[in-house]
TrEMBL record:
Keywords from the named record: Transferase
InterPro entries per UniProt: 3-oxoacid_CoA-transf_A (IPR012792), CoA_trans_fam_I (IPR004165), CoA_transf_BS (IPR004163), NagB/RpiA_transferase-like (IPR037171)
The species this protein was found in: Arcicella aurantiaca
The protein, known as: 3-oxoacid CoA-transferase/3-oxoacid CoA-transferase subunit A
Pfam families for the chain: CoA_trans (PF01144)
Keyword presence, Transcription: no
Family the entry assigns: Belongs to the 3-oxoacid CoA-transferase subunit A family.
Any one Gene Ontology molecular-function term assigned to this protein's record: CoA-transferase activity
Amino acid sequence: MINKVISGADEAVADIKDGSVLMMGGFGLSGIPENCISALLRTGVKNLTCISNNAGVDDFGIGLLLQTRQVKKMISSYVGENQEFERQLLAGELEVDLIPQGTLAERMRAGGAGIPAFFTPAGVGTEVAEGKEMREFDGKMYLMERWLKADFAIVKAWKGDTAGNLIYRGTAQNFNPMAAAAGKITIAEVEELVPVGTLDPAQIHTPGIYVQRIFQGKDYEKRIEKRTVRG
């Protein structure tokens, strides 16, 4: 069994070059690769294209990379919690491709499954459909969407083993499984790294065949984006 363990986040992202396409797991601030984002800040790599459901918040997550102007383009679904993102978008400083959330998830899943295109009703009759192929199936119009793939996929899991098998916990099982399958090189940071054979095979969400690098992360903040209390 191949041991895919590396020393940490700095080693994990060391070969990410200017202009790379990155796909990151996470939803809001849940299940985001905090350690790798911090390491990317330290490298100063720039002109990145980031495929992610959202752009974090101003001072956390991908929002940190936006502050340092390391991101050239965002391919996302929900970006409403990041004021710096909004400012750069309105100022024409950031390229943005906004995608319906379900379509984004399926485009990522298609990339990992080797499916180059599929048809969906989402976006028909809107600006999303401009320039895209349309077809009718059973009397209903559908829009063709293409897969999304990345040079590097960066995910965060609860547990992983030295062969790269991953288990996500709770709502962190969001875009992470799709992202993990769609990268040429997939980097996984985990809260707990265990020997091969420790994880229950029936509980594994991402098989190790998709993962090239894994390390145990540290100092996770696990911020809550919006805290809601009930009176």
